[in-house]
């Protein structure tokens, strides 16, 4: 393709900087390489379609079916060689169902209404067969970009809170146990309770709980408290599940708030929970 002159008239317009070929096509230099305005328009249309797909994918008001339908419609949008602008396009219900995996004509109709209401498809008329003609636009690009930024910040905050809660729970669990690596010298002066009930005294707590609940009715803690002593700590359960089960039995459904259950569980697992603590709490919530 030969370059004839640097100032010419092509397609009815003046181009003082561009070059014009023998065929009358205007040529621009892009990165040192000749490019016709038609080729430039096609490249820009491809970039526009890609940006539109990215906007639709992140738009919370657009369904996956709408994204697929837009891809199908955009295939028919080309560049007008005379005006160098994108053409309008149409997509029948049958074509939409086949090319975008849409299940029914009813769904196809809902997709059309949604895309028109949001401004992605601009209705510009219809064909002789009655199919609607659309011009594709990207009117919500800025709004969706703001939504992406806000969603990203919210997700980061939620992730930070989740990690902080997880660290706090791990710290609470560690605080409720004696580390295996602690030396006897480091434990001098501390109260350490065996985590098992002595063989000579088989699970007396459960036995007295059964007796007290069946015999004393109004005071479910009178049995174990009278024998153990109100200030004598409960033995430490082997697992946290056992601790929670014991607390539920002691409270008899009068306390189910997770925060307080965890508080008493930590005291029980550390060997510091006494019958007096339970008795005071039951009196407070009575």
Major sheet summary line: 4 strands, antiparallel
Number of strands: 9
H/E series: EEEEEEHHEHHEEHHHHHH
Strand order of the largest sheet: 1-4-5-6
Termini Cα gap = 96 Å
Number of domain modules: 4
Shape: elongated
Please identify the top-level CATH class of the largest domain.
Answer: Mainly Alpha
Helix content: 40-55%
Overall pLDDT metric: 77
Quick tags:
single chain; 286 residues; alpha+beta; 4 domains; 4-stranded antiparallel sheet; 3-stranded antiparallel sheet; 10 helices; 50% helix
List strands and helices in order, with pairings:
Elements: E1 3-5, E2 8-10, E3 13-15, E4 19-21, E5 26-30, E6 33-36, H1 37-58, H2 64-74, E7 89-90, H3 93-99, H4 105-118, E8 121-126, E9 132-136, H5 141-175, H6 204-215, H7 222-228, H8 240-251, H9 258-269, H10 275-285
Antiparallel strand pairs: 1-4, 2-3, 4-5, 5-6, 7-9, 8-9
Helix pairs in contact: 1-2, 1-5, 2-3, 8-9
What does this structure look like?
With 286 residues, the protein is an alpha+beta fold. It folds into 4 domains: 1-30, no CATH class; 37-139, Arc Repressor Mutant, subunit A; 146-175; 204-285, no CATH class. 50% of the residues lie in helices and 12% in strands. The protein contains 10 helices and 9 strands. The protein has helices spanning 37-58, 64-74, 93-99, 105-118, 141-175, 204-215, 222-228, 240-251, 258-269, 275-285; strands at 3-5, 8-10, 13-15, 19-21, 26-30, 33-36, 89-90, 121-126, 132-136. Strands 1-4-5-6 form a 4-stranded antiparallel sheet. Helix 1 packs antiparallel against helix 2 (64-74), helix 2 packs across helix 3 and helix 8 (240-251) crosses helix 9 (258-269). The chain is elongated and about 100 Å long. The N and C termini lie far apart (96 Å). Mean pLDDT is 77; it is low at 1-12 and 190-224.
